[in-house]
Amino acid sequence: MTSIQIHEFSTGIRPQINADGSWVSLGFTGQYMNVTINAIPHAVERSIANKEFAVAEGAFGDQPAVIGRVVLDSTTSDWSVVAVVSRGQDEKGRSASFYRYFLCEGRDNLLNIVLWMEEYERKNQCKPVFNPSETKVLGQATPFNAQNTSYPPKELLQNSTSTPIIINSDKRYSLQQINASAAALANGQPVAWAFNAEALEKPLSFIVIQAASERAYQILQRAAANTPKVQTPLVVDEQALKSAIKSLMGSSTVKPEVVGIIAEALSNKQVNQQYWENLFDGQGAINAIRQKIYSPQMVRLLTLRTLIIPQKLGEYLDWLEIKNNANKRDLNSNITCSLEFQANLIPTLPDSSIVQNNLNYLFKQIEVYNPPANVLDNIGDYCLDKLHNRELALLYYRFAIYFTARTNKNNVISDKLFKKAFSNSRGQENVFGRTVYSEQYRRDQGESDVPKHIVIVFVLLSFFLGGLGGFVLSEMTREPQTATNNAKTPPDAVGTDMSQPSNPNNNLNITASNNNQITPIPKGKKQKDAFDKFEKVTIPVINKIINDLDKQEKSLPDGVTRLNIIAALKETLGNSNLNESVLDSSIEPIPELKNDWINTIYSYQLQKQPNQPAKAEGYILPTGNVIKSLKQDVEKNLKKTSIPVAPLGN
């Protein structure tokens, strides 16, 4: 028979012991008393702080409540913990709850603590309640011979349809039976039960609850029905999360250890979007939106909320009144407060796959809000001049360039904005996979038609990307060499890596074939035909494939954007360095870029028909096997990807 060690500790008070042995509390000390274990496990302390053993204040019965649960600990072993909760008084006669905790290492020892308690009750005619008159010695646990057999009442299991099972007081079960029933119904989850309970802080966190009275039964039933169904994930320290959020709200100074708590929760798949929403709303986010509350604390809170829940982006930008700043020279104080907070977050947030995964979702929202371009430009200027944060400024400038180019047929950017983002450029750069040109570059090329300034930009997307330090910034601002290999890396480029080609969709898990050897199309008639038909035949066919897939939302993963489709097309053809600017039928393609596409298409056709090289033509007809095969291959690659819509995956 195995002997186990049962430790204990109690609520810390300054007791006044009367002559008859009764006692009153002169105040709580904030420390535990009568501790027998050398160090109370951190997971147990956090479970208590998160009110997982708490009875509702004011709900007292004559008999003590007993609460048992398994506390998980990811760093060491799990713990079986039973709390005996009894009523006491202070010197003024006011009632309060006092807790005596019993714990044993391992998740299978709740039964043994219960058996020991029943043995104690038989000997002492009462449960082991809170008693400051008893003196416990540190390191002296209570030994007990362990048992592992207990059987639940059949009627409880047969009548259970959902948890928590709340048992009325007219049906009395023993502690053993309550524990056995909870264990039988746990279904892989940690066992949790309450015995003789009047009211509980978190009723939905229990599997079985034995009500102390008819009144208690009604209270518990209503509480379970009215409690929001979003419960704290079992491995999350909710109080620590709330404290971290409050710390970030309260000051523009960002502490890395505070951010670490939030980053850890972000990596937890059990923490879903609804839980985050409830957490932020509990700190005042929803009231700030509805009532237009613009304190610095609320600005920081909602900025953090939008980082974690990107679906709130449009609501956040509306609340910040971004569009109302279109005709103003200076940014309003709420925007600058948000920017200061963003700049302070950058060096503290670790690289995170959460934001990488959210990238596609954020891109899909680009056209929804449509903020003015001059506001975005002003934000970049503020980041550079006031915050002295060149990384954040460059990212804003380059997003302005990228989204301006998306609606500009010639991909031409004003010289002023272009120079802000690329101070030492020759005038042609690749921004997030799109080739853009300065006005001066186009003039030098004989291009006189410079389009008007476009207003479709995306103001705060860069927060979510730049806010996670070097990861997204280094990936998204990477500037590949052009096909002519003449482009130079501007010295102000942040996090660039010229050794790898640019891919604006690095989060796509597409099977790449960039290492495949591209076979040039033979010179002569075949090459001439491919060049002649490129603009007339090949470009319209490729654009049709892209457009068809862009409309084909139901059969593709959530979050797929046009950018993803273009990236998948390049990877399918076997050359991620292809420049999509040639697909714009309104401009004459640069011969070198056009040649890349023709050779790549020719190589793709050779690979698809290795035994019929004569059928590889370097161009794609609107009918036939090539267009059908290419579209199917691109679609297949897209379906292999994982593009979650939410920031938190569950």
TrEMBL record:
Ranges of compositional bias, category Low complexity: 503-516
Domain of life: Bacteria
Disordered, as annotated region: 481-525
Keywords, in A-Z order: Membrane, Transmembrane, Transmembrane helix
TM regions (residue ranges): 453-473
Name this polypeptide is given: Uncharacterized protein
Organism listed in the record: Dulcicalothrix desertica PCC 7102
